[in-house]
Amino acid sequence: MAQVHILSLVTILSALITLVMHGAAHVLLSQGKSCPRGQRPISVLRPLKGKVDELENNLESLMVQDHPQYEVIVAAADPTDPALEVARRVRARYPRVPMQIVVGEWATGKNPKVRLLRKMLGRAKFDSVLISDDNVRVTPDYLAKMAGALARPGTGLVSNLVVGVGAKTVGAICENLQLNSFVLSSVAASFLVGYPVVVGKSMLFRRAALVNAGGFGAVADVLAEDHLLGRAVHAAGYRVVTLGLPVYTVNVNWSVSRMLGRHIRWSKIRSSIAPRVFPFEVLCQPLVVFALTMLAVVGFRLELQLSKIWVTSVAMVVLVTLSEVVLAWRVQGRQFRAVHATLLPLRSVLAAVAHLASGFIPVVRWRNEIYRIGHNSRLLPVRGAMTPRSWVSIRRAA
Questions:
Q1: What is the helix (H) or strand (E) element at residue 25, kind and residue range?
Q2: pLDDT value at position 150?
């Protein structure tokens, strides 16, 4: 019984940690409803790479902003990139919004997204610079509320909570469940405890803060440019804010392997940035901890009785599952379906697999380039022939 009690206590601890994180997400989302509006001019930088899900609608969401003065700059490295034609169609439909279409990239740096950002920054004319990924869709009040948050004295960077929407496949549903539970709640909790984690899907900088943090050049050779820029802006003496106003990343027709590949890559990033904390992330997956408890009971033929600790652990797992459903429903609204909740166990298992696999897969693939990841997500060259193990990672790390 002692072993079962220990495992049950771990399950209860895991559930409590997750519930606290969910609570942090609800607090920040509630604060986002009362965000003040601002009017400062904004240059929006949107790097493009291929046709992502619903790219045209995502771009259009930037062109219909209720904001007095802004410009949109998009860029792709390849002049034949199909995303450029989509951008041209959108620009033609909204001639009143200044949109620049840039072809080409900065000559140096291992991170392809940063190469595009450095190229676009040279075209930006305003002192407030916003990075917005190509798979992100925003509400019409997005720029006004981001400007309002940046107007607060001492603020150098404003980021957002990220919500996954639009899923039509099992892989996309699991991706959105992971974004709308673990990722969203961990970002919210980190901000509320005074250690903001910046997500690169949406980042608004004061140009002076960006320059004092070292600029894009300082993160030209790392993969986690968003987190490291946030850390550098904070170190330069500015406030870094996570706004409770969500942005929506559209994930429609994902495969399970693609979802797994992204989170293996993200896990490798987190392990390189916070190696002492990363191993304990499994405690944020109470369904997996509970499943491991049950496997231990069966595998080691442990005695299982209806003790108070055991019953409490089962009740906590049920409670945290309901909490996850409520959080997903709150951020997705009518897009969340009851059938999505049946995939919560699969989502938890895939997240745990990504966590473990990140320690065994040596390389990742991102934006059609292959990398090894060093300390603080530094990008390292891949030399020599691909091994069977690295070939598996290349196929999965989409």
A1: helix 2-32
A2: 97
